[in-house]
Specification:
Layout lengths: L1 E4 L3 H13 L3 E8 L2 E8 L2 E8 L6 E7 L20 E4 L16 E5 L5 E5 L10 H11 L9 E6 L5 H14 L4 E2 L2 E2 L12 H4 L1 H9 L3 E2 L6 E4 L2 E7 L11 H4 L3 E6 L2 E5 L5 H11 L5 E5 L10 H7 E9 L3 H9 L11 H14 L4 E3 L5 E4 L7 E2 L16
Parallel strand pairs: 8-9, 9-10, 9-11, 11-12, 16-17, 17-18, 18-19
Antiparallel strand pairs: 1-5, 2-3, 3-4, 4-5, 6-7, 6-20, 7-8, 13-14, 14-15, 15-16, 20-21
Length: about 400
Amino acid sequence: MLGYEGVSKKEFEAFCEKILQSGYVLWQKNEIGVNLFRTYRQNEKELCLAFYPKLSGGTMHVFADAHEGTVIIPEAEQYEKVREATLYNISFDYSQKSIPDGYGMSYVIALEDGRYIVMDGGYNKSSGSYAYERLYRCLSENNQHPSGKIVIAAWFMSHPHGDHYGAFETFTDVYGEDVTIECFVANPYSYKMNTEGEWFTTKLPTILNRWSIPLIKPHTGQILTFCNTELEVVFTHENLYPDKNFGANNASTVIRLRQNGHTALFSADACAAASKMMVKLYGEELKSEIFQVNHHGHSGGTWEFYDTVTFEDSYVLWTCPEEFFYYRTLGYYVDGKSIVDKSILQPNRDLALKVGFERNFYAEGVVESFTFPENGAITVSAERDITLDPATQPQP
């Protein structure tokens, strides 16, 4: 990656023209607000350009990928529709987990052709109930692929923490012969860049090689299309350049799903640096009907970020158990035992109040589904029965 500061839009466009003159072909063009993104290809080589006019008087990032060990983003293919596109909020069994264990993150997107996209997947084990088994159960019970087989079009991984990648390790080990995984999507960084990237450089290649799963490494601004479902990359660790001491959470790849005119933003475990950068770059361009709260509601999300990316009637997803959801929005556990730090509590509480507590969904209990119809609003399988209204509770 190369970074240039003090670049004007005119200079960026002139550089793009030189790339075309050198024999590259424009493959993909995207804009998020005032930010410009271009992807050029020549045989198996790829050049990705990003222009951020609000950074340092105009910043340009250039990525030259030879795709050694990876594959280029595939072209969207024609398909036959067999179902409505649906997002599933996978629940966990938290009965024997403690706060330091991590809370996991697992979402499934059912595509219109019957394939799936899996997001992270969760940790290896949740007391007596394994996260990978819960994931497989959701895929199996909702499978409508014409072949009858479970086909995962893409398995997306936000960052290398065990409560996010653990289920992937065991899922492939147990179900690798029965399930087809067509590609793995992540933006790995090396152990030399940051020690928390060790899983990306050691264990991940072994799993992908065992099951012949190709790796796609997307950059900010690129769009991956599966059927008519778009995954737009809005943030990677590369947006923190030249800082390499970012930690795995701030290095989370943030994805915006676009489906039939609807949007869902998945912030994974992005923390303060990432949140501030996204607000600076995009502002309200990231507003979405569904929003996954940063870092399990633990830390990292700011009120400015939450308010910027949500509507008054957005659905909010919390990757944590019910008790922790109350803990991070009310300031204490349901039994009134523990008080949470106000700097974390206030943004969470304000977000829950903004959209209404009944539009908040934690990752425990029933598996909710959000269907994205071609016409009309998102439909939800069930709303949460929130018994404690923060508006009636003491202010933090």
